[in-house]
Amino acid sequence: ADALSRWIDWDDRNSCILFGDGAGAMVLSTTVSEEGGDDAEAALPGILGYSAHSNGKGYGDLNCGYKGSARPVDTPGEQTVLSAGSYNKLAMNGKKVYAFATREVPTVITEALDAAGMTVDDVDWLLLHQANIRIMETVAKRLGMPMDKVITNLSKYGNTSAASIPLALDEAVRSGQVKKGDVIACAGFGAGLSWGAAIIRWG
Fold first, then answer.
1. By 3-state DSSP, what share of the chain in percent is helix, strand and coil, each rounded to 5?
2. Contact 178/28 with Cβ under 8 angstroms?
3. pLDDT at 105
4. Contact between 158 and 187 (Cβ < 8 Å)
5. Which is nearest to 122 in space by CA: 133, 130, 134, 110?
6. Which among 193, 19, 22 is positioned nearest to 108, based on CA atoms?
């Protein structure tokens, strides 16, 4: 869940128009095949492969830094001083984040596919963090996937940050776009900088 409207600099038109608030979750459970045969186990739903990275050197390109202030509390003896926590306004260098995402996301998806023993040809849907349609178009192109295989709801809600992947997946499942047995390549990226991907089979 993210409520970035609390931390947006509403005077910065480069970032304030991009973000929305949202929350989403996915519940995983163990699965037992109801079908026999050698291929039954291979077709089970679940997480098939994943990869994740972070690089603190990119902190300055996208962050919402901690902003603490002293908060004295009356206690016996010497006064105790706590930190009243908050955050600074969100700061983003859009050009650098675009370059980072379009470079690293195709790579991390390929790593996750390798871990799953799969290739792009095995993927039914590409589900990316809903940050920017240009990023999604470029990532899809670099993976050799058509845009009609890309799940997106960015135009409805904007960038809902951590909520964007589960929200888009929920809509795709409810609409019948994603069906049982479909293989979905998911990838997210964000502050830190951090990025990761997971290959899942929907069940």
1. 35, 25, 40
2. no
3. 97
4. no
5. 110
6. 193
CA distances from 74 to 71, 80, 160 (A): 10, 7, 40
| Cis check: omega of the bond before 28, within 30 degrees of 0 | no
Nearest to 109 by CA among 197, 188, 201: 197
Is the pTM higher than 0.70? yes
| Amino acid in the structure at residue 203 | G
Q: What is the pLDDT of residues 193-203, one digit of tens each?
A: 999 999 999 98
Q: How far is CA 82 from CA 72, 76, 185, in A?
A: 6, 15, 44
Question: For the chain, first and last CA: distance in Å?
Answer: 24
Task: Report d(CA 72, CA 80) in Å as an integer.
Answer: 6
Cβ atoms within 10 A of the Cβ of 25, count?
8
Residue 35 contacts by C-beta under 8 Å, 6 or more apart in sequence?
43
How far, in Å, CA of 128 to CA of 185, rounded? 8
In this structure, the strands spanning 194-201 and 46-54 are: antiparallel
